[in-house]
Request: fold
Amino acid sequence: MSLLTDALDRIETWLVSHQPEFALSLAPGLTRQEIDAIVENFPYRLPEELYELYGWHNSCRGLSCGYVVPKFDNFFSLQEALKWYADFLSWGFDWNPQWLPILDFNGDYRYAVVVGEETAPLWFIDPEGGIEEIRWDSLTDLMLATAECYETGAYYLDDERDTEADEQKVAEIHRKYNYRGREKSTTNESYNPEPPTVASEVDLSHPNALEELIQALQAAPLNPDAGILQAMAANTLDNLVNSGLANLVGAEPLVIGLQNILYDNAGHALAAKKLGELGDIRGVEPLLQALSHPSSKVRTNAIKSLVKLGDSRAVEPLIQCLQDSDFFVRADAAWALAEFGDTQAIEPLIEVLSYQNHSTACRAIASALGKFGDVRAIEPLIAVFRSNGSFLIDVSSFPHVKLAVVHALRLMDDSRTTDILVEFLRDREGLLQAINRDWLRSEQATKEVIETLFTRQYPDLIPILAQLLQDSESRIQVNIISAIAKIVNPQIVDLLILVLASEDNWLRQMSISFLGARRETKAVEPLINILQDANADLRLAAVQALEKMDDSRVVDALIAMLKDENYHVRGTAALALGNLGNYRAVEALNLCLADENSVVRKIVQQALNKIS
Reply:
């Protein structure tokens, strides 16, 4: 056995013990004849090390998280390596025609082996960083170092099962194997994007911190000539005003940004922020004064600090901030008023909702009204829901507003809001628009709507959901199944079982996974039936789901899967049987110790060790 083959076997053994799901995603290796056939038209001879690497495994497949070499999330198959090689040459990159890429991190940087030479060093290529250098004299050195890092704990799994590195240990091991790359800097200096100001020097634990922060907040802005950026901002702002462009609606973000640069160059915004962190009630008055500061960044920080201080004197000035020229200030003011919970803010919020033209502020106002839960807001919110968003500067952002309104209305238990929630589910085109605009928020909103309708015992909810799960548009189906999977209700299980009959295998796989997470024994028989499916991914998902079920039928079903034609399914079944620890599986597992796949053999042995 060569040093490289030994190192690869050690890496595989560690992965089987610590990340078996990822180990099973390693594709079977290629024979020498298969490799020769794949590279028949490649202009360079492959080094022997690549024959060993691709004879070991030909890439990793699936979505399992893990690394062969940490931080390189793509271990290319030989076919993929050749494709990327051709792409890099055709794209006009400064790509050496004797570099064959084998490992890659998210397309940002990669390792490439030199082909066609007596020696085959490993180059590290980082196009954005402008780095092209030999990091290892051979693939063997890299894999020996990687194996030792795994075995000694230099690479380890954190509490989230993510791979982390003890940088000092890794560096020591890398040096043993002649690593040529630059070692990482150990400096503790951190980059501070904010220029130093008077406020940044204030220590909150100092007795004079309050006075120092108030002085910093009220300090006169620096002369624009004090900084190049400030001078440029002042000149640009003057030009916009003189040309009459400053008052145009489209120029608003630019004008506000220029004002922030010009008027906050003394660190007023940081002072406003730190007054809230200080927590001294004497900071309320200067913060109230800061609500009229020419920099909107100062105003938003003052609002957040006033909420932290919790003084009711802020309510009336915050109501005035609902008329601010900056939509971020208006949005923060609405949020702050909801945090204070003073009902005198309800009517002003309803009033500004009726003519709000920016989606950010509109969403914040709707959310604030939802928190108040006052029935006076129902009709104004419904009016926004049923509008087409023509009142917004950016009409395309209306789906975001609609989702915020739905969230607000569900907090008010009223027959009118129930009708709107049902309308939200039945509005197929509106649901699609929301999904296309922001699938994550739309899924959350859908979940909340369904939960609310369950709570209100809406009688036709299940038929509506069943119809949506059979919709011709897969985006709607995925949205609904993802939403209901997070809801605790026994009727959801029946809906998920219904999806198992879908023609869309991706939806079926999602349903199988969600059923496993619920551990409902009602799903055992439907899942066992999936084990006979022609699709290996579905059989694999069913095995993983059944492992979580406390049912006597599961062990026999998993034992039968040890004979599956797919190595990934066999290995996952063996892993599940080992975790279940049922002695009935021993005889069947012993018969699998000679499995043709090395990862499966190791998992079977590990399962037997667990049971015994």
